[in-house]
Structure formats: structure tokens, C-alpha cells
Amino acid sequence: MDITFTDAAKDRLQKYLKNDAKIVLDFDDGVGPFSDEANCTLALSFNLVFVNKDADLHEFGAKISSNLGDVYAKPYSLDQMNEHMKVDLDPKYLRYSLSGQNGELDPSLGIKDYTSK
């Protein structure tokens, strides 16, 4: 499995990758330290979370390769994804999306920065 960040997405996300930050693709299901609450609709919701390099990621045992480095995820969240995923940026609304070969998985991918906490 892999994730490709488009050039537009990479350019805007670079500011979060300071000090060797790690990237987490968090399935927002109410489980784990970065998920405030589960989504109450039938829609899937994901967040890109940027954490310090020494953050405890024991709940995120899946490692996905990407063109920005490894992306950590909850192992069971991989069931929602395709083999080749893409993170893109809508330049008009500055909104990130997560998609795969089967279409868009999350049209409004959230961004959370925990690198300074």
C-alpha cells in the first residue's frame, strides 16, 4: 500500500514536517489519542496528524509508504483504503482530499498539528 501526495498538497504540508515530524493518517472513529469523537454519519472521516518524532504511536501499527515518508495508521483502517491512495489539495478552497482507485474516500481530510505539544 502507498500514498502519493500531489505537488500542491506537498507544498502546503511542508510547514508541518519540521524537526522530523511523523505523519499519522488517523481514522476518526473515536479511538486513539488524536480522535476527539467518532463521526456520527455513515461517511468516513480521516485526519492527517503531524506529531513529534518521539510520539507514542503504538495504536498506529500500520506503516504506509509515501512520497513524504512513512505514514502511520490504525491497522484496521487499511480495510477502508485501496492499494494506491492519493492526498490532493483543492486550490480554490484549500481543502485536502483522500482518494483511491475506487474514488474519493474523504473529500475533506482534516489536518492536525501536534508537533509543538
From TrEMBL:
Gene3D superfamilies assigned: HesB-like domain (2.60.300.12)
Domain Core: 1-113
Classification via Pfam families: Fe-S_biosyn
Domain of life: Bacteria
Name of the protein in question: Predicted Fe-S cluster biosynthesis protein YqkB (YqkB)
